[in-house]
């Protein structure tokens, strides 16, 4: 392959179908040509969570129209594609198989190689798609729906996990608390909107492992504390939790968000201090949270640390981050695309296994 090539990225690990096209030109940062996304959230909302079988079927419906859309928008033809990248894991097996199957079929039909991408590496590298891309090395706070990790990142494939959650992820704490308050699924964004009108000091909720001398997280107890608090209020008001007055729900939402954000901010600052690095990169769906961004910006400004985020619309799952991660691995020469068209997905896949030997 020449050092100028075009990568198609397909994301189908959960409830969003994303397709994108990224152009690599020499050693310059790869450029996003176009991306398209279809969110299944509305479809799953009726069930209160993702229904894997429905997710797989919907990915099948969306992936080719989205591929046509990105080709059209970037004025490229199928024959202009040099590499077909797809999310290999972690994620829902059936959903992953759709992206893998389409990537293999396209690769075989076009005689172009494929590359299976680690979903979390996609999130981790997504800030490189922003107008203010970071530079290595940095501390990364990876906060997605299923993962919460602090990492030292020295380059593509050079990751050292400094701390991670021992139970629920921050995204799960948002989602489970939101569900409890009757805000539906996935509730992180809804909870943060409701929190705007609430008082974050209204309820004293636990800050798990805030003062521990390591960088691990634990959010399972917080969800239980929110539940206990909400039930107490519901008994006092003689109504179900989700029928509590809006002002009380807003106070609960604000107090929950404040607890999660405080832990994330404090541990990020400790990781920066311990590594001596002056750059923080936030990635994953929870990185869209406005309160988290405001508090991190404030605290990092105090110690002259630069903070980088993905563009808001690229915080949650998308194809652009998958195309970008593939492009950056290829560009760095640490992985080659393959012409073995095997549907080989990894529903469970720790990020450590992507680390260069
Ligand atoms: O990274 P992501 O799209 O999916 C995974 O790879 O897991 O993250 C989804 C998570 C969900 O837990 C969702 O509630 C949360 O990100 N999220 C938010 C916000 N937007 C999305 N959490 C808090 N505040 C938000 N604004
Ligand atoms: Zn994700």
The number of distinct helices, counting runs of at least 4 residues, comes to 10
**Gyration radius, in Å:** 21 Å
In the CATH hierarchy, what is the superfamily of the largest domain? ATPase, nucleotide binding domain
Can you list the strand order of the major beta sheet? 3-2-1-4-5
The rounded distance between the terminal residues' Cα atoms is: 24 Å
Main beta-sheet annotation? 5 strands, mixed
Q: What is the name of the CATH class of the largest domain?
A: Alpha Beta
What is the tally of beta strands? Answer: 10
β-strand percent reads 15-25%
CATH topology of the largest domain, by name, is Nucleotidyltransferase, domain 5
The name of the CATH architecture of the largest domain is 2-Layer Sandwich
- Helix content percent band: 40-55%
Number of domains: 2
Mean pLDDT: 96
Order of helices and strands: EEEHHEHEHEEEHHHHEHEH
What are the segments in which pLDDT stays under 50 over at least 5 consecutive residues?
none
Ligands in the model, by name, code or SMILES, are:
5'-O-[(R)-(carboxyoxy)(hydroxy)phosphoryl]adenosine, zinc ion
The gross shape turns out to be globular
Question: Structural class, from secondary structure content?
Answer: alpha/beta
């Amino acid at each position: 392959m020449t050092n100028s090539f075009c990568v198609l990225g397909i994301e189908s690990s959960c409830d969003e179908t994303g397709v994108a096209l990224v152009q690599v030109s020499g050693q310059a940062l790869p450029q996003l040509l176009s991306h398209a996304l279809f969110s299944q959230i509305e479809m799953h909302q009726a069930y209160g969570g993702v229904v894997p079988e429905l997710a797989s079927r919907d990915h099948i419906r969306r992936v080719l129209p989205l591929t046509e859309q990105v080709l059209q928008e970037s004025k490229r033809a199928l024959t202009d594609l040099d590499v077909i990248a797809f999310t290999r894991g972690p994620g829902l097996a059936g959903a992953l198989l759709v992206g893998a199957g389409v990537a293999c079929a396209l690769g075989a039909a076009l005689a172009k190689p494929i590359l299976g991408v680690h979903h979390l590496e996609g999130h981790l590298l997504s800030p490189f798609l922003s107008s203010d891309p970071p530079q290595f090395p940095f501390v990364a706070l990876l906060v997605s729906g299923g993962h919460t990790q602090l990492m030292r990142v020295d380059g593509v494939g050079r990751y050292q996990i400094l701390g991670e959650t021992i139970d629920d992820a921050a995204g799960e704490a948002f989602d489970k608390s939101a569900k409890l308050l009757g805000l539906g699924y996935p509730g992180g964004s809804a909870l943060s909107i409701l929190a705007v009108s609430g008082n974050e000091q209204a309820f004293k909720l636990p800050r798990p492992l805030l003062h521990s001398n390591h960088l691990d997280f634990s959010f399972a107890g917080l969800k239980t504390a929110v539940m206990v608090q909400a039930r107490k209020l519901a008994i006092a008001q003689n109504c179900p939790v989700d029928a509590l007055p809006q002002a009380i729900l807003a106070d609960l939402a604000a107090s929950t968000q404040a607890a999660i954000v405080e832990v994330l901010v404090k541990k990020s600052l400790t990781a920066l201090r311990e590594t001596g690095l002056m750059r923080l990169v936030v990635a994953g769906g929870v990185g869209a949270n406005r309160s988290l961004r405001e508090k991190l910006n404030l605290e990092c400004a105090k110690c002259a640390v630069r903070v980088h985020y993905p563009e808001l619309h690229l915080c949650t799952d998308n194809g652009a981050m998958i195309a970008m991660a593939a492009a950056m691995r290829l560009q760095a020469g640490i992985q080659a695309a393959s012409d073995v068209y095997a549907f080989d997905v990894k529903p469970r896949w720790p990020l450590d296994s992507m680390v260069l030997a």
